[in-house]
Specification:
5-stranded antiparallel sheet; single chain; 6-stranded antiparallel sheet; 14 helices; 4 domains; ibrinogen binding protein from staphylococcus aureus fold
């Protein structure tokens, strides 16, 4: 977070929240925390984000729609120490990216916002009680019971907050003798100024004719006095830009103050104070980063699915050719039957004339000893019929996989130009229509909440749509079965499994509480449960079905082993997944 903006945020928060009571400390995502305060005339929240690349603190600009996060052990510990206490003051050293929320009885929560070193530290009487993150570099400084010391600052450069304008000009002139660029001198040589602040100082100095030290000293004094209100430079509404994939620098920047001559610019937004403006900018930036990561992840899934379909098509065509080579079985059977009187056995083979060769060439045909030649011919005809069916099935599968590849290629073309949330949602929908398990939530009840925070793909799950429009999920390994049944499926979902044999867990998403799926969907899911089981080769298979709430883990057994409290049975024939509908 820009240090100049952070200084204004600290002043703004101190003015608004000093004297309030801390009501709640919540862990909202892996790196996002919320402090909720109560005041006599109402209350509000402060958000702290500890993303390693860009930590920040500010007021939230919208309601958090992510899932409830399993809190780090630090959070309940800090809550017990701080919730219900009065906030006495908020402190910040001028050039240091650390904010201290000091409460009654000398308890404090320190928010350290250095990039790649962000942390939360709980203090009691100036000593470390606990910290959120402990690394080798902080082990000594943040050891429990040690006196707290802020993160060490770089020894290079000077602290501009404690020197005069003339001293700043002298430092700049000394560095310029080494032919260093002015922007580098300000942003690297003056601690806490940053790239944006340095650029604004140089622009103002060039416009006004004042020295760099004079301009910077005046701006720093305004920040320390709480008179410099940050502005968000935004050519369009920020959240609308995020939704359409257009939120990015240099079009959107958080400025520590209003540049000279731009006081009336319509593209400089004030969110309602330094903390609210900073929160608006950083929440939009985080959302835009998440959107880009989501699209990158979908691109990886597309490439993996295309590679899998391509390999499947190649194997299917190889199988088709292999089956076609087995067409000689029929010719060998005819030769045996036509030449029974002249057949000569030799070990495990029989020598007979070739009825299709005008010269009467001899054929050597495999024939197990002791098996009548009529039985050998019958077995060869059976192999011929099986080979024909196998070749037809392999060709059909190859064509289906070719169609799947064409559909994936069309999605990939759409992905190349994707930028917005709606683009990502359309790509996920298209992938789901092909049976790729992307964007799945644990249950329909929390689908919308999880969509923004979960990974797009749940590995180990096949997803299909029944003829009635119901979603059917099929597990793969034992661990995948366990996750599907107990982490993804909702209590009212329908659960199926082949009776008495190992196999996949199958789940039908429930549409309405207590309502059973249509008979066609139930039988379709049961056929899948039979196919993905050890009873696949049987003509018919009994499949158990029940509500997921009636299924329990078998204590001490391997993952995927369950106990079923009550169930019904449906008898079906095993049926595979159509490659155009799902992943095999």
């Amino acid at each position: 977070m820009d240090n100049l903006v952070l200084a204004s945020v600290a002043w703004d928060l101190a003015a608004a929240w000093t004297g309030s009571l801390l009501e709640d400390l919540r862990h909202e995502s892996d790196a996002r925390f919320r402090l909720r305060f109560a005041l006599p005339r109402g209350g509000g929240s402060i958000v702290v984000s500890l993303r390693p690349e860009a930590p920040w603190v500010g007021r939230p600009s919208r309601r958090w729609e992510g899932p409830r996060w399993n809190p780090d052990p630090f959070v309940p510990l800090a809550s017990r120490a701080l919730v219900g206490r009065k906030l006495v003051r908020i402190e910040k050293a001028a050039a240091d990216r650390a904010l201290s929320f000091v409460f009654l009885e000398d308890r404090a929560l320190v928010v350290e916002l250095a990039p790649h070193g962000a942390n939360l530290v709980l203090l009691g009487e100036g000593r470390v009680d606990a910290c959120l993150r402990r690394t080798r570099s902080t082990a000594t400084r943040l050891a429990a019971g040690a006196a707290y010391a802020p993160p060490p600052m770089s020894p290079a450069g000077i602290d501009p907050f404690d020197v005069t304008a003339s001293a700043l000009d002298a430092y700049v002139e000394e560095r310029r003798r080494n032919d260093e660029p002015m922007l580098e001198i300000l942003r690297r040589g003056l601690r806490g100024v940053g790239t944006v602040g340095a650029s604004l100082v140089l622009e103002e100095a060039a416009t006004s004719g004042e020295s760099v030290g004079t301009v910077l000293r005046r701006r720093l004094d305004e920040i320390l006095a709480g008179d410099a209100r940050p502005r968000l430079q935004a050519p369009e509404p920020p959240w609308e830009a995020v939704a359409h994939g257009r939120f990015a620098e240099p079009g959107f920047r958080l400025l520590p103050w209003v540049p000279v001559g731009r006081e009336a610019d319509a593209d400089l937004l004030d969110g309602g104070g330094a903390a609210a403006t900073a929160g608006l900018y950083y929440e939009c930036r985080d959302a835009a980063e998440h959107q880009r990561a989501r699209l990158l992840s979908l691109g990886g899934i597309l490439r993996a699915e295309s590679s899998r379909a391509h390999d499947g098509e190649r194997r299917a065509r190889e199988n088709s050719r292999a089956f076609e080579l087995a067409a000689d079985h029929g010719r060998h059977a005819e030769a045996i039957l036509a030449g029974l009187s002249r057949a000569v056995r030799s070990g495990d083979r029989v020598i007979v004339p070739d009825p299709y060769d005008p010269d009467g060439a001899l054929l050597s045909v495999p024939a197990p000893p002791g098996v009548p030649l009529a039985r050998v011919a019958e077995d060869l005809y059976r192999k011929q019929r099986r080979a024909r069916r196998g070749a037809e099935a392999a060709r059909a599968r190859a064509e289906a996989l070719r169609g799947r590849l064409d559909a994936l290629d069309a999605i990939a073309v759409r992905h190349e130009g994707a930028r917005s949330e709606s683009d990502a949602a359309e790509i996920e929908s298209a992938l789901r229509s092909l049976g790729v398990a992307v964007g799945l939530a644990r249950s329909p009840r929390v689908a919308r909440a999880l969509a923004a925070a979960t990974r797009p793909r749940l590995a180990g799950v096949r997803v299909l749509t029944s003829v009635d429009g119901f979603t059917i999920l099929v597990g793969q390994t034992g661990r995948d079965n366990d996750r599907l049944t107990f982490k993804i499926a909702a209590p009212e979902d329908v659960w199926l499994h082949a009776s008495g044999v190992p196999g996949a867990h199958v789940v039908i998403r429930a549409s309405e509480r207590g309502s059973a799926p249509p008979e066609t969907t139930l039988r379709e899911a049961a056929a899948l449960a039979a196919w993905f089981s050890d009873a696949r080769g049987n003509a018919t298979v009994d499949v158990q079905w029940t509500r997921r709430k009636n299924v329990r883990r078998a204590r001490g057994a391997a993952p995927g082993t369950v106990l079923v409290k009550r169930f019904e049975v449906v008898r079906v024939s095993p049926r595979p997944i159509d490659p155009r509908q799902g992943v095999t």
